[in-house]
Amino acid sequence: MRKAADLWKARVRAVDRARKAARRGEPEGLHDLRVALRRAAATAAALGAKSLSRDAKVIARSLSAERQLQVDRELLARVGKLGYLSPDATTALAARWEKLAERGGRRIARAADGRAVRGLLKDLEKLSRRRRDDAVERLERARRKAEATFVESLEGKADDVMHRHRIAVKKARYLAEDLAALGVRRFTSQIEREKALQDALGRWNDLGLFSRRLAGSRDEAEERGAVTLAAEIEHLLAALEPTIAAIRRSAIEISKAPPKIVPIRRQATR
Fold first, then answer.
1. pLDDT of 7 strictly over 80
2. Do the domain assignments include residue 40?
3. pLDDT tens per residue across span 156-180
4. Cβ–Cβ under 8 Å, residues 154 and 251
5. Domain assignment of residue 114, yes or no
6. Contacts for 105-111 with beta carbons within 8 Å, 24 or more apart?
């Protein structure tokens, strides 16, 4: 069975590799950095490194706006190709969002090479040199605590509840994958369901935030008298509503599938 030190070493490699990719401006660098930080935060919280977990979350959250803008620009290109916006409208929005991305790119580069992330890497490296005999027990306890927060169906739940559900599912999945990396595979049968639910909730969240940015761009267009652009954006917002509702419904249906109950491992008596 692998040791907790191997888990920390994997976190060091993931964060360092992703931060370098983000600093170089690679397309998936920012996404990979935030995922690596979230995984490190989940592992650290479970294994008692509360300060490290908090620091990783702070860095990841500081890059949320830049990541969402990246997603929004990808979605804009997609809806433009599908003909939901005219080429002129797509170009106008892309140009305005490009200016935001240029400023965001500089913030990403600074964060990826900044004192906070370098300090985090040092802390992770220190943990990788420590012996920890209770890692599996602590990870499993954290996993059960996390999964207890999303056992209910999302039917009838408000958007803010669905958002918290998405975060809880993601954390539980990360912990299950940590356990699997240490040779404990009791939770692996649940990972596929949780990934499907996480993906559906992620698409719903991304489209909702994309719509919010579009609404802001529509308001800006109206203020400066760009009536045609505002009308096109309004038309796109109306077209997105049923898609967002369908993805939301899909997530709710996935949440109804009862999770497999993993029996609690009995500790050996002496």
1. yes
2. no
3. 999 999 999 999 999 999 999 999 9
4. yes
5. no
6. 105/25, 105/66, 107/63, 107/66, 108/22, 108/23, 108/25, 108/29, 108/30, 108/63, 108/66, 109/22, 109/23, 109/25, 111/22, 111/59, 111/62, 111/63
Q: DSSP letters of 117-168?
A: HHHHHHHHHHHHTS--SSHHHHHHHHHHHHHGGG-S--TT--HHHHHHHHHH
Whether residue 42 contacts residue 171, with contact meaning beta carbons closer than 8 Å, is answered with: yes
- The CA dihedral of 164, 196, 143, 11, to the nearest 10 degrees, is -100
Q: Measured between alpha carbons, how far is 23 from 26 in angstroms, rounded to an integer?
A: 8
Q: CB-based contacts of 269: which residues, under 8 Å, 6+ apart?
A: none
Whole-structure pTM value: 0.89
Range of the domain at 250: 134-259
- Give how many domains the chain has, as a whole number: 1
Locate all alpha helices (DSSP H) within 129-265, ordered by sequence.
Answer: 135-147, 159-181, 188-223, 227-256
Phi-psi category of 48—alpha, beta or left, where left has phi over 0 and alpha has psi -120 to 50? left
Beta-carbon contacts of residue 174 (< 8 Å; ≥ 6 apart) = 38, 39, 42, 43
Of the candidates 4, 252, 212, 218, the residue with the CA atom closest to the CA atom of residue 92: 218
Please check whether residue 138 is in contact with residue 47, taking contact to mean a CB–CB distance below 8 angstroms.
yes
Question: Quick check: is 54 in a domain?
Answer: no
37 falls within a domain: no
Burial class (CB in 10 A: 0-12, 13-18, 19+), 44: buried
Q: pLDDT tens across 189-223, in order?
A: 888 888 999 999 999 999 999 999 999 999 999 99
